[in-house]
Amino acid sequence: MVEPGGTLAVAFPYIDLMSGPIPTRLLVTTSPDGGDTWTTPVLIAAIHDIEGFFPPERYRNLSLPAFACDPKTGQLYITWSDKGSGDADILFSTSRDHSQIWTTPVRVNDDPLRRGANQFQPQMAIAPNGVISISFFDTRVDPQHRLIDVYLAQSTNKGVSFLRNVRVTTQTWNPAVDAPIDTSGLQFIGDYQGLAADDHFVHPFWNDTRTGKQEIFTAAVPSALYI
To answer: Looking at the domain assignment, is residue 29 inside a domain?
Structure first.
C-alpha cells in the first residue's frame, strides 16, 4: 500500500515450515524513501492459519490476508481468515499510527460463533468516503457447510464495528464442480478474487460454478452510505 504521504507499507504472513508448530505471524514493514530502506517488521497478530483444506472437502486453502489503506487518512487495515474459534472466521485489525500499533482483531462475519460455517479468502477495498468493504467466501447457507456463497461486510466507522453482512450471491455453488486437481490430489477453486469500491457501489469479483463449470462472476452492491 502507498500512504497519502508516500510511505510504502507491505504486510505479509511469516510462515515457519521448518521449526514445528509455530503460529503464522502477520507482519508489516514500511519505507519512507520509496523502497530504499525498510523498517524492522512490526507484529500485527499471531494467527491460527488455515492449512490445506476443510475436511471433507478437498479444495486447497490458506489464510490469505488482504491489506488496504484509507486514501485520505492513511489508516491501514488488514483482514484474514482465522480458525482460532474452531471454524474459519474473517478477522480484522487496523493501525492509526502508520503501522506501529495494531488493534485487537475483531470478527467480521456475523453468523453464530462455532456453528461450523467457514469464511475464507477475503478481499478488501476502501472507498473515497472511507467506507471499508470486505468480501469473502462463506458456507453458512448450506447446512452441511459444503456449498459456497459470497458475502460482503462493511464498516462506516473506520473498522470499529461492521454492519450486518450482505449475501452477494443469488445461488450457492459447489467447489467440487469442474475443479482442477493438483499433484497432491487437492482441488483448486482459485484464490485470486477481487474487490473494487467507490462511494456508491461495491463490485465483488469471484469464481463460481453455478453454470456447471468454473466461471467468473461480479455484482454491483449498493454501498452502506449510498442506500
So the answer is: no
